[in-house]
UniProtKB/TrEMBL annotation:
Active site residues of this protein: 131
UniProt source species: Candidatus Caccopulliclostridium gallistercoris
Annotated protein name in UniProt: Peptide deformylase
Keywords: Hydrolase, Iron, Metal-binding, Protein biosynthesis
Cofactor: Fe(2+)
């Protein structure tokens, strides 16, 4: 395992569409293990492969000490809304208000290619949306609620 360099906003790669993972082999596992280490080393809650320069549809997350890997994630359902502060290891320094669904159901594959379905609320829903956005070249700064004031 190794930590990898995190690309920062302004890097063109962060704006590209990531490609579906088709091989669930040692190359993928090494990437995921490195992403996990890189996320923990930088105190992140989530990391997408593109953030370490790999255009593959793979994300890792750690929500309340639950580690998750989602390969080829696809949001099937979403409901409600929440507005909360969000940051990103590729942006750094700032946390801004972003509107997200309150609850999402995502279908994905695990590192072996088995299909999994996860329903998450609150912070988990927020992270799933944030990381899935990365795979489509979208950053949270594109979605800041500029006029929102905390109550
Ligand atoms: Ni991010």
């Amino acid at each position: 395992m190794a930590t990898r360099k995190i690309l920062k906003i302004g890097d063109e790669l962060l704006r590209k569409m990531s490609k579906p993972v088709t091989k669930f082999d040692e190359g993928l596992w090494e990437l995921l293990d490195d992403m996990r280490e890189t996320m923990y080393k930088n105190d992140g809650a989530g990391l997408a492969a593109v953030q370490v320069g790999v255009l593959k549809r793979a994300i890792v997350m750690d929500i309340n000490n639950m580690y998750l890997e989602l390969i080829n994630p696809e949001i099937l359902e979403q409901s409600g809304e929440q507005i909360g502060r969000e940051g990103c290891l590729s942006v750094g320094g700032i946390q801004e208000f972003v509107k997200r669904p309150k609850k999402v159901t995502v279908r994905a594959q695990d590192r072996y290619g088995y299909q999994i379905t996860i329903t998450g609320e609150d912070f988990l829903a927020r992270c799933i949306c944030h990381e899935t956005d990365h795979l489509n070249g979208i950053l949270f700064v594109d979605k800041i609620e500029k006029d929102y004031k905390e109550e």
